[in-house]
Amino acid sequence: MGPTIIGQGSSVYVNSNKGFDIFILAAFGNKHVSLKFVSTPEQVDYILDSSLFHDDGFVATRGSATTYQISEAALKLTSKTGNVAWAYAATKGLFSGSGKKAVAEACAKQLKALMEGKE
Fold first, then answer.
1. Separation between Cα atoms, residue 13 and residue 80, nearest integer Å
2. Residue 6 placed within a domain
3. What is the pTM for the complete model shown?
4. How far apart are CA 62 and CA 42, in angstroms?
5. How far apart are CA 101 and CA 37, in angstroms?
6. Residue 4 phi, psi dihedral angles, 5° rounding
7. Helix or strand or coil: residue 49?
């Protein structure tokens, strides 16, 4: 069985996850992912679920001290028939940017690449 083809313009409902859905929608818009986002799950092609985790910490060395945040997100795109069409996890933090925006953009970039046949 080959990979699932996620068509340009497919309709997607993004499940709310304590506001992370807003970051997902913004990232997919900023990365120009060609999907149609809708506000209700009825009559859609896919549902996008997400999980978001943060780890905050403090690092001290002899000459300096700093705080850091590592953000991790996992996204799953499920078709209306229940098949998982795409899943991706991203970790951002320390030196690569952190927070909801960074992990949402990493996920958007990967889905766009898959849709364009680059993944």
1. 11
2. no
3. 0.79
4. 57
5. 18
6. -70, 135
7. strand
